[in-house]
TrEMBL record:
Full protein name: Acyl-coenzyme A oxidase
Cofactor or coenzyme needed: FAD
Domain Acyl-coenzyme A oxidase N-terminal: 22-141
GO cellular component, one term: peroxisome
Residue intervals of the Acyl-CoA oxidase C-alpha1 domain: 283-444
């Protein structure tokens, strides 16, 4: 398959003719620099020239088993293609190129993410030396098996036990109840021959809490399940049905002492426990994956936006002015209001993901030299951003679907698949409400620490009890972000006051927490969005000195739209705390409408600059050439029901019904 850029339809030609900025420059910014764009395109070119990686038939037409096998075939083909061309799985992950191909829930995704990340992040030097080469070369295939039928969120409540037997220097893994059954892990059912397993560590009858173990599940030659292990697939789900999410039970299954991951906590041969420097270091893989999910969510949202915005420029419907030709639906202000704030969100999330990655890298470097002090901040930021990014990507993707009318509901638009894949992100890797409550803990703690005169870490420093007053004019970007910050400070102060009031009136701190938790989740959401606004403003102002004026103007407009939209969403709070008044809000609403019309002019060019090729968009509605109707029609011809004029169902059911004397 070669890369042919087709001639586009007149509508899109006209849209592209209005572009006033350098698209390539914007593409480079989104990729993280020209070198990364170049690398991504090299990988893409190589993939596009590997026809085996592309489906002839939609997975919707395959049986459950064929769908799984087909996805596995493509994943293994992808890995060998990368390897043959001098790239690694990691290149496909970091550039996002692998994801475009295999987003129907891929059976190798857990291996190349959480399994490998656990080996890298939780092994001592000997374990690293033993397991990493095997896993990187796919000699062993693994997954991350933590969640159980009974517990996902509450990791401390897991029931699987790992009891040390010092006589044989082994751990005995056991699932004592039905609810202890591991349930959900991707690729656990049929693909993985190994798993990293979270289990309660027992030494001398005492429980030391959840720890991670490397467990072989299947024979490496026959792939048969080992004795003492029951494993299988959990059945169809809302989406990502090409994966084999699985279940797992242990019946007094023995593994060597050296299979406990021992980078942070250790068990000696005689059964003594050595504590980690921080009790939550074993949660490191989850934190790392949350960082990755922020990127992933922004990527998926961008695919939906490209599809919906191109389609909105091609689709004509109704009359804006009676008797006039039908306008492009993108000309309707309501359509712009549906799509363009989400386009701004995509940019905001992309810049925030980059900032979060830097915090992650900095914190990881600190951990290497024994510094644990940045861990709570990283936990709060990664939890909050994972939750906002997935919530917004899911909402944005569904709005994109709705914005495409009936055709958005077609599987061939690819919007349903993007939606169901990213919808899982709200639940997995920490359910979003639960993660927001973790952020809220951090906010309340920080607020209280500030009241006692302590200095606050950077992401919460604006919460200090006596902040410096903002000197920026209210209507400037900085002024509005400061107003949003004042709103969050007010919300957190109010939550803290309510918590204290409940405790003073006799409630336990835990009961008070639950009684305030709706408000606390709102605080966490608002705080995270304030952080995102700050990252967006900072990124655009830093880029200002280095980019052309056209690109800078587009970024400035998107950033402005993001902030204005956020202020309007938060109007109630901002009015209550006096950060803005009604007059300011009216002018913000008017400015937002004006900005929608301005951004609409270059909207197609902006999504073009995200630079996702048709073969990766996989959408009849979003292709570069805008040839929507022909594509929808051709895709429909592939339906198995169209293979014959009269189906078996007619002879079997319909005809007898018609002939019956009812
Ligand atoms: C061939 C294929 C080619 C390509 C295919 C593409 C594949 C993509 C892979 C690419 C990867 C990278 C890039 C993209 C990423 C893509 C992502 C898509 C794929 C990802 C698949 C994911 C599949 C899903 C996996 C899972 O879901 S795994 C299971 C996850 N489970 C959870 O997250 C459970 C959530 N619960 C918890 O984390 C905890 O229980 C809790 C935090 C809620 C509570 O913990 P606990 O009870 O122990 O703690 P307390 O509440 O008592 O708090 C005590 C204090 O500890 C602090 N704390 C808690 N956690 C942490 C932490 N992690 N770090 C630091 N501190 C922590 C609390 O805040 C408390 O502090 P305080 O006392 O000071 O207040
Ligand atoms: C597609 C998919 C893939 C997955 N892949 C994996 C995997 O590879 N490995 C793995 O180990 N797991 C995996 N999981 C499991 C996933 O991590 C859990 O489903 C997730 O952590 C949520 O836990 P739960 O299902 O127990 O939900 P629950 O915790 O039971 O949540 C149910 C409801 O209770 C609420 N709730 C729970 N606790 C609290 C609280 N403290 N305060 C307020 N509200 C609360 C939640 O907000 C939610 O509304 C996957 C899940 C899915 C859907």
């Amino acid at each position: 398959m070669s890369v042919v850029v087709p001639e586009c339809c007149d509508d899109l030609k006209r849209e592209r003719g209005r572009c006033l900025f350098n698209k390539e420059e914007l593409t480079n910014i989104l990729d993280g620099g020209p070198k990364l764009t170049e690398k991504r395109r090299r990988i893409e070119k190589m993939l596009i020239n590997t026809p085996e990686l592309f489906d002839d038939v939609s997975p919707d037409y395959l049986s459950h088993e064929d769908r799984y096998s087909n996805e596995l075939r493509k994943a293994t083909q992808l890995m060998t293609t990368l390897e043959k061309n001098g790239f690694t799985y990691n290149d496909a992950v970091t550039t996002g190129t692998g994801l475009w191909l295999l987003m129907d829930g891929n059976p190798l995704s857990l291996h190349i993410s959480m399994f490998l990340d656990t080996i890298k992040g939780q092994s001592n030097p000997q374990q690293l030396q033993e397991w990493l080469p095997l896993a990187e070369k796919f000699k062993i295939i693994g997954t991350y098996a933590q969640t159980e039928l009974g517990h996902g969120t509450f990791v401390r409540g897991l029931e699987t036990t790992a009891t040390y037997d010092s006589t044989t220097k082994e751990f005995v893994l056991h699932s004592p109840t039905i609810t202890a059954t591991k349930w959900w892990p991707g690729a656990l059912g049929k693909t993985s021959n190994h798993a990293v397993v979270m289990a309660q560590l027992y030494l001398g009858g005492k429980c030391y809490g959840p720890h991670i173990f490397m467990v072989q599940l299947r024979d490496l030659e026959t792939h048969r399940t080992l004795p003492g292990i029951v494993v299988g697939e959990i059945g169809p789900r809302l989406g990502m049905n090409s994966n084999d999410n699985g279940f797992l039970q242990f019946n007094h299954h023995r593994i060597p002492l050296t299979n406990m991951f021992m980078k942070h906590s250790q068990v000696t041969e005689d059964g003594k426990y050595v504590k980690p420097l921080h009790s939550k270091l074993s949660y490191g893989t989850m934190v790392q994956t949350r960082v990755g999910i922020v990127y992933h969510a922004s990527r998926e949202l961008s695919r939906a936006l490209i599809i919906a915005i191109r389609y909105s420029a091609v689709r004509h419907q109704s009359e804006m002015v009676p008797g006039d030709p039908e306008p492009q639906i993108l000309d309707y202000q309501t359509q712009q209001y549906k799509l363009l704030p989400h386009l701004a969100s995509f940019f905001a999330l992309r810049f925030s993901a980059r900032a979060l990655l830097e915090v992650f890298i900095g914190t990881s470097a600190g951990l290497g030299s024994g510094k644990m002090n940045m861990l709570p901040e990283l936990h709060a930021l990664s939890s909050g951003l994972k939750a906002v990014a997935t919530n917004d990507a899911v909402k944005g993707t569904d709005i994109c679907r709705l914005a495409c009318g009936g055709h958005g509901y077609l599987s061939s638009s690819n919007l349903p698949r993007i939606y169901t894949a990213i919808a899982a992100g709200i639940t997995y890797e920490g359910e979003n409400t639960v993660l927001f409550l973790q952020v809220a803990r951090y906010l309340i703690k920080s607020f209280r620490a500030s009241s006692q005169g302590q200095t606050l870490p950077f992401s919460v420093s604006y919460l200090r009890v006596q902040p410096p007053s903002s000197h920026a004019p209210l209507m400037s970007d900085r002024g509005l972000v400061d107003a949003l910050g004042a709103g969050v400070r007010w919300m957190v102060g109010e939550a803290e006051r309510r918590l204290q009031q409940l405790v003073d009136s006799g409630h336990s701190p835990h009961a008070a927490w639950n009684a305030c938790s709706v408000h606390l989740v709102q605080c966490a959401d608002a705080h995270t969005r304030y952080y995102i606004c700050e990252q967006f403003v900072d990124a655009v102002s830093k880029l200002g000195e280095t980019v052309s004026s056209g690109v800078h103007e587009v970024l400035r407009q998107l950033c402005r739209l993001y902030i204005l939209h956020r202020v309007i969403q938060t109007a109630g709070i901002l009015l209550r705390c006096g950060a803005v008044d009604g007059k300011a809000l009216t002018s913000i609403e008017e400015e937002e409408c004006h900005l929608l019309a301005t951004l609409r002019i270059q909207a197609v060019s902006i999504v073009d600059a995200i630079d996702i090729k048709d073969v990766f968009l996989k959408s009849t509605l979003g292709a570069w050439d805008g040839n929507v109707y022909q594509r929808i029609y051709e895709e429909a011809q592939k339906s198995p029901l169209n293979k014959s004029d009269v189906t078996q169902g007619y002879y079997q059911y319909l005809r007898p019904l018609m002939k019956a004397n009812l």
